[in-house]
Write a structure and sequence with these properties.
CATH architecture: Alpha-Beta Barrel
Strand order of the largest sheet: 1-2-5-6-7-8-9-10
Helix content: 25-40%
Oligomer: single chain
Structural class: alpha/beta
Radius of gyration: 18 Å
Largest sheet: 8 strands, mixed
Strand content: 5-15%
Number of domains: 1
Distance between the termini: 24 Å
Number of strands: 10
Order of helices and strands: HHEHHEEEHEHEHEHHEHEHE
CATH superfamily: Aldolase class I
CATH topology: TIM Barrel
């Protein structure tokens, strides 16, 4: 790492939190490519984190033929202060979902598929077996895509993580989301140390699996806290990293404390690459599956 471990000027420049700065404004999705992907997703009865989590990149990604599928329903058993996914009591697992997921992937001609899920603390394995079924369905087709999973922490679900790693997705992703100090406010049902343990276990057990994580900025963290998280992630074997600006989904969610500048994200990308991360997406609009195919 370079000597720039003291706060960078661009990182601490506050732009105010009353309105989005110009670099965060995106056009409403209306392109033919976007509409085609939306029709495919709806036809196959699938959920996407792109829509459920109100991702600002949905127009661009769907226009380019990319989507992140969200399995195990669209109702989460946890209530995180940053997330727009509905919290409540989920329904039963749909055994046909893996087949429909593979069919949609085939129609979309995807070369890389991202599969994520809501938290399913109500299930004995946290939904791990369903992840496995989806991976196998995607692989059981001609010219199968590479597969990236973005999983929950499977907390207190013995053997769940190992089930997913055993089928060797090309990329295993689990987001730490924010710095340890803010977990009680932002991710009260989560635990920073536990999430690090999930990622470390994936790096140790997942032979040939590339391990990925990400975090959001603008929740009240300092640059030094962010750099400490990046150091933790590299120490345990994470090689892919995403860093993006937190955007408040509604007035009831955690407020935006700062809009980090594009220059700050560029600085973090440089720092992270010098720390040894192989691929870094650091941009105000970067999200977990942003440019995942790369």
């Amino acid at each position: 790492m370079t000597n720039s471990t003291v706060p960078l000027k661009s990182a601490d420049s506050r732009q105010g939190v009353r309105g989005k700065p110009r670099w965060l404004k995106v056009k409403a999705p209306t392109s033919p490519g976007y509409l085609a992907i939306r029709q495919i997703v709806q036809h196959h009865g699938l959920n996407t984190v792109c829509e459920s989590a109100s991702c600002p990149n949905v127009g661009q990604c769907w226009h380019e033929g990319a989507a992140a599928f969200m399995i195990l329903g669209d109702i989460c058993t946890r209530r995180c202060a940053f997330c727009d996914v509905t919290t409540g009591r989920p329904g039963a697992i749909d055994p046909e979902e893996p087949r429909r997921l593979a069919a949609a992937s085939r129609v979309m001609q995807l070369k890389h598929v991202v599969v994520t899920s809501v938290d399913r603390d109500d299930l004995a394995d946290g939904g791990a077996a369903h992840f496995v079924d989806c991976i196998q369905a995607l692989r059981d087709q001609e010219n199968p895509p590479s597969i990236e999973v973005l999983t929950p922490d499977f907390r207190d679900k013995k053997g769940a993580l190992e089930q997913v790693l055993a089928v060797k997705p090309e990329v295993f992703n689990h987001n730490v989301e924010t710095v340890p100090r803010l977990y009680s406010q932002v991710r009260p049902a989560g635990n920073y140390s536990y999430s690090l343990g999930v990622l470390e276990r994936a790096a140790q057990v997942g032979e040939g699996v590339m391990v990925k994580s990400g975090l959001m900025l603008g929740l009240g963290e300092s640059l030094l806290e962010v750099m400490a998280v990046l150091a933790d992630l590299r120490r345990i074997g994470v090689v892919y990293l995403t860093v993006g600006q937190y955007l408040r989904p509604s007035p009831t969610h955690h407020p935006v404390e700062r809009y980090w500048t594009p220059e700050a994200f560029d600085d973090l990308k440089t720092e992270a690459e010098e720390m040894g991360f192989l691929r870094v997406e650091s941009h105000p609009l970067a999200r977990s599956s942003f440019h995942a195919e790369k």
